[in-house]
Write a structure and sequence with these properties.
Blueprint lengths: L2 H10 L4 H8 L2 H34 L5 H9 L6 H12 L4 H6 L13 H26 L3 H8 L4 H12 L1 H17 L2 H5 L5 H11 L4 H25 L26 H32 L8 H31 L3 H9 L2 H4 L2 H15 L7 H24 L4 H9 L4 H12 L1 H17 L2 H6 L7 H10 L3 H28 L1
Helix pairs in contact: 1-13, 1-18, 2-13, 3-4, 3-7, 3-10, 4-25, 5-7, 5-14, 7-10, 7-19, 7-22, 8-9, 10-13, 10-19, 12-13, 14-25, 15-16, 15-19, 15-22, 19-22, 20-21, 22-25, 24-25
Length: about 500
């Protein structure tokens, strides 16, 4: 996890501290810093506001078709940000599809979508599933005893939710919000298409336009510092609360009592439908429109099954590696808190906050200079994915592990199991909902990862993301529609299997 940081430090200080402070203290750099903080704050708050109600509705209520809503609400995570941003511009932008449809009604111009409003909308629509999946995992692993006690003492449904359920969800909400905040800082596709100057866009511009990569590395190091500040804020929000039952009690299925929505059923359906409409139906509909128009104009249908297989294969490897690496980090952070555990956990987030191009270039530098045997291999690509997306698995696993009472692990040790045996046979099964949720996050995000794939993939190794990017960069939107739709379809399968696993549990 320290490899990108070492690369940035070496590059940033290549010409001494003078250039570092000159670039860092420029008015333009400080303005970019302020805009990036505002964007991350808006997107994080909006994502939490959308995801927490969705997670509760699809887990704890009698919402009609709640499992289908859960799959549909999580699928926007697989829409690449550059595709999502392009869909928003082509639909809601000037001379877009919506304006053309409203032109007969006298609407000549829609409100401006570029800048902060458009970038915040795009990133919220395609990143709120980070919070959704982590909170769903926490809800399913939550001990229902406290909620039942609250209701038996006379508290109503809303009072129980805000005073009992929501406080227990704090670790999961914070873990998902942290992922959203860092993703907002590192994303390039949406902010570029919607013309919002953030750190990631400025770094990409510096790398592409300047022969000297030192200013870009300095901006990347500032982004690491901003990440450190966000992580410090996240640690302060944790507190010292415990999220597991410390007293003896009867063993009962987890997941809580199903709440009858009653007269709130239709507003709940309207809310779920509006979110899915904006985040999934509109992008998929526009892709279908491009595909139909391309086929009508003679464009051949390219489904790229080979690229789909490569995408699923490498994403599954990355998810497995990240889940295995995240479990000891989460155990260290939860069971053995201290300065060592804090440093290890914070270091695991470094690669996630950096734009993919910075991470990829750091591994190119490492592979070319110190591990030539790994350069251009699938192992280095999977390693890059694990470095980039490990926090997704750590956050979900940690949030669930907080709900597991340590007395169960102590009992296993007292009965003769060693630390490794306890982790494999007791801790991991009890935290499996968080491990599965984290693995799903890594899998879905790896499916759409682009910069690391472009720079580190072996020769002849194509994914759906690279195929989409190749077509969109050449303005062949009709050609990009088929692999983009296939990407959504292929990614829907593991989400469905994840929910089937939840049901069987």
């Amino acid at each position: 996890m320290t490899l990108p940081l070492v690369y940035l430090v070496l590059r940033s200080l290549e010409n001494g501290w003078g250039e570092f402070f000159e670039v860092a203290l420029r008015p333009r750099t400080l303005a970019v810093l302020a805009r990036s903080v505002v964007l991350a704050t808006v997107v994080t708050a909006a994502s939490v506001a959308v995801a927490v109600p969705l997670a509760w509705l699809t887990t704890r209520t009698d919402l009609p078709g709640r499992r289908a809503w859960a799959v549909l609400a999580a699928l926007p995570l697989v829409v690449p940000s550059y595709v999502g941003g392009l869909v928003l511009v082509s639909t809601f932008g000037p001379r877009g599809l919506l304006q053309d449809a409203l032109a007969p009604l006298g609407v000549e111009r829609l409100p401006e979508i570029y800048g902060l409003p458009g970038a915040a909308l795009a990133l919220t629509l395609f990143s709120y599933p980070y919070v959704l999946l982590t909170v769903r995992g926490a809800l399913r692993g939550m001990d229902p005893a406290l909620e039942e006690a609250s209701r038996s003492l006379g508290s109503g449904g809303w009072s129980t939710f805000f005073r009992v359920t929501l406080p227990q969800l704090r670790p999961a909400i914070v873990a998902g919000a942290l992922l959203v905040a860092l993703y907002s800082l590192s994303d390039f596709g949406a902010v570029s298409l919607l013309q919002f100057d953030s750190f990631s866009r400025e770094i990409y511009t510096q790398y592409r336009s300047a022969f000297d990569r030192t200013p870009a590395a300095i901006l990347g190091l500032m982004l690491v510092a901003l990440t450190g500040a966000i992580l410090a804020l996240e640690v302060r929000t944790r507190g010292r609360a415990r999220y597991h039952r410390s007293s003896a009690g009867s063993v009962r299925p987890r997941g809580g009592t199903v709440v009858a929505l009653g007269r709130w059923r239709w507003p709940a359906l309207l809310f779920c439908g509006a979110v899915v409409l904006l985040a999934l139906v509109v992008p998929v509909g526009v892709l279908v429109f491009w595909l139909a128009r391309g086929l009508a104009s003679g464009e051949p249908l390219r489904l790229l099954w080979g690229a789909a297989f490569d995408s699923v294969y490498v994403s599954a490897l990355a998810a497995a590696v990240a889940a295995l690496a995240a479990l000891p980090v989460a155990i260290l952070a939860v069971r053995f808190p201290g300065w060592v555990a804090g440093i290890v956990e914070r270091l695991s987030y470094l690669g996630y906050a950096l734009p993919g191009i910075v991470l990829a270039l750091s591994l190119v530098f490492f592979g070319a200079n110190y591990a030539p045997g790994l350069y251009g291999t699938l192992a280095l690509l999977v390693f890059a994915y694990a470095v980039h997306f490990l926090p997704q698995a750590v956050g979900a696993t940690r949030a669930t592990l907080l709900q597991v009472s340590p007395s169960v692990e102590e009992a296993a040790r007292g009965l003769g199991r060693g630390p490794t045996g306890v982790m494999a046979t007791v801790t991991a099964p009890l935290a499996s909902s968080g491990i599965i949720a984290g693995s799903a996050l890594v899998f879905l995000t790896t499916m759409k990862e682009l910069p690391a794939t472009l720079l580190l993939a072996p020769l002849g190794f194509d994914t759906l993301a690279t195929s989409i990017w190749t077509a969109t960069s050449e303005a062949f939107f009709a050609r990009a529609a088929a692999p983009a739709l296939l990407l959504v379809l292929v990614s829907a399968l593991p989400m469905y299997l994840l929910l089937i696993k939840e049901r069987s549990r």
